Amino acid sequence: MVLPGLLGLPAFAPGQVWLVGAGPGDPALLTLGAAHAIASADVIVYDALVDERILALAGPHVRLEYAGKRGGRPSPKQADITLRIIALAREGLRVLRLKGGDPFVFGRGGEEGLALVEAGIPFRVIPGVTAGIGGSAYAGIPVTHRDTNHVVSFITGHDTTGGVTGSIDWAALARGSPVIVLYMGLKHLGEISSRLIAGGRDAEEPVAVISRATTPHQRVLETTLARAHDDVVAAGLEAPSIVVMGPVVRLRAALDWMGVLDGSRTPKADPLGTRGHKAAS
């Protein structure tokens, strides 16, 4: 194993808080910086979506404190979590705030960082692979492809009240973003789909719903925008899930590398049907 010193990895000093992304689940997606933080911390305050295999990397001396927030379930309040990591840092501990995905992508890392600034606590951010990118890739879906889109939008399915996000111009999003990646959207998927269709989105647009992405329990449902809600209910898919909307979903017919490796899928060449068009042009 390469020593942290040879890589120039920073020292985790007592009294610091590191806001670290653990990635979407698969320990293979953990960054070297995150692994270094786990090995160096005195206490890890971790979220519900951090895989147990990642927590197992912590040494026996490391204290683990659960601070998971799950929609619709009793959960610690964000203010209490923030106060806790500040208190631990003031005890002179190396505090690792470990989050699923990336702390700055729908992860409240910005909120916690601002609170640490106000408290005078030094901190560092180590980004992680966000589920919208890593989970899509594990489903065989690139979120950008030059034959389909030059824009991708990442949106959250609910706001701080738990309802559909009211600050989004759904009609503009429907017209302006060929690919949409929806986080935390299963609860309101029917309403979100209806708003996008009302804004001009094709009801037959391909959609993929990826449940428990990058974990051994990953499930992928391919459907359409109009049928997405009903198909998710029928399939019994549960959170955490991400939803990918747009033409890139068709690429899964060729790029579902996990399905090819386990023998459940034969890749389809030219899933977009562009080969003949390119040859003609």
List the helices and strands and how they pair.
Blueprint: H1 4-7, E1 17-21, H2 32-40, E2 43-46, H3 52-55, E3 63-66, H4 78-90, E4 95-99, H5 109-119, E5 123-126, H6 131-138, E6 152-156, H7 170-176, E7 179-183, H8 189-198, E8 206-211, E9 219-224, H9 228-235, E10 241-245, H10 252-255, H11 257-261, H12 275-280
Parallel strand pairs: 1-4, 1-5, 2-3, 2-4, 6-7
Antiparallel strand pairs: 7-10, 8-9, 8-10
Helix pairs in contact: 7-8
Extract low-pLDDT stretches: none
Number of strands: 10
Strand order of the largest sheet: 3-2-4-1-5
Main beta-sheet strand count, sense and barrel state: 5 strands, parallel
What features would you describe in this structure?
32% of the residues lie in helices and 17% in strands. By secondary structure, it is α/β, with parallel strands linked by helices. It has two domains: 17-129, 3-Layer(aba) Sandwich (Cobalt-precorrin-4 Transmethylase, domain 1), CATH 3.40.1010.10; 132-279, Methyltransferase, Cobalt-precorrin-4 Transmethylase, Domain 2. A hairpin with a 7-residue loop joins strand 8 (206-211) and strand 9 (219-224). Helix 7 (170-176) packs across helix 8 (189-198). 38% of the residues are buried. Residues 17-227 form the Tetrapyrrole methylase domain. This is uroporphyrinogen-III C-methyltransferase. Belongs to the precorrin methyltransferase family.
